[in-house]
From TrEMBL:
The keyword Signal applies. The keyword Signal applies. This is Uncharacterized protein. Keywords: Signal.
Length: 158
């Protein structure tokens, strides 16, 4: 009997200590619907940008994302991103994304024809200053042991 009680207590503790993941939380449908449509990144800013280069989303220099076109479809959380800067290598990719109730934007960059469930890595950014025509995604990077914000400013295009 004592073993059974001990086993039950250990089971309860194990389930109670389960960590939560950004991908296991509920969605913020209001924020997602506000992001629906076509957007362009008007600027990428961070302290020390004149001295430090940031490789955004493991794809290109952060400045290559200025002028990039993004399409967000809120009913199926898919979309596209297109890097079109003349001074950078062109890149186009399907994406999958969502916004959780903690205000975190979760992004996966996919290869053509690849399903999101096959992609094990992604990016988590904070959503900030969201309006009908603009919003910001904020990434945290480590610069010399200090956490620094990289701010991607999105503007809606018609």
């Amino acid at each position: 009997m004592k073993k059974l009680i001990l086993l039950c207590a250990m089971s309860i503790m194990m389930f109670a200590c389960k960590t939560s993941s950004v991908t296991n939380t509920k969605l913020d449908n209001k924020s997602e619907k506000a992001m629906k449509g076509n957007w362009v990144i008007s600027s990428v800013s961070y302290p020390g940008s004149e001295y430090i280069k940031v490789n955004s989303f493991d794809l290109a220099d952060s400045k290559c994302f200025e002028g990039s076109a993004w399409k967000f479809v809120s009913n199926n959380n898919k979309g596209t991103m297109d890097l079109t800067s003349a001074s950078c290598t062109a890149f186009s990719s399907p994406i999958t994304w969502f916004v959780n109730q903690e205000g975190q934007f979760v992004l996966k960059v996919l290869n053509a024809g690849e399903k999101a469930k096959k992609v094990r890595s992604g990016y988590v950014l904070a959503v900030a200053n969201q309006t009908e025509t603009s919003f910001q995604l904020v990434d945290k990077i480590n610069v010399g042991g200090k956490m620094t914000d990289v701010v991607y400013q999105f503007q809606k295009i018609n």
